[in-house]
Amino acid sequence: MFADNDPRLSQLLEGIVRLASGDLSSRIEVSPARDELDAIIMGTNLLAEDLQIIYEELEQRVQVRTQLLHEAHLEMQKMAMQDPLTGLANRSALLETLRAALEAEHPPGEVPVILLMDLDAFKSINDSMGHTAGDQVLITVGERIRGAVRASDVVARLGGDEFAIVLPSATPDQAAIVGHRILAALDPPIELPGRSVRCGASVGLSVGSAGQAPEDMLMEADVAMYASKAEGQNRLHRFEPALLLMRRLRSQLVDDLRAAIKNDGLTLHYQPVVELATGRVEGVEALVRWNHPTRGFVMPDEFIPLAEEAGLISELGLWVLRTAVHQLRSWMDTSLVGTMFSVRINISATDLQSLQFIEDVRTVLKETGVRPEQVVLELTEVAIVKGNELDRYSLGGLRGLGVGIEVDDFGTGYSSISYLRRLPVDRVKVDRSLISGLGTDPSQPELVAAVLQLVRACGLEAVWEGVETAEQAEILRGLGCLSAQGYYFGRPVPPEQIPGLLADQPERANP
Question: Which of 372, 470, 472 has its CA nearest to residue 430?
Answer without folding.
Answer: 472
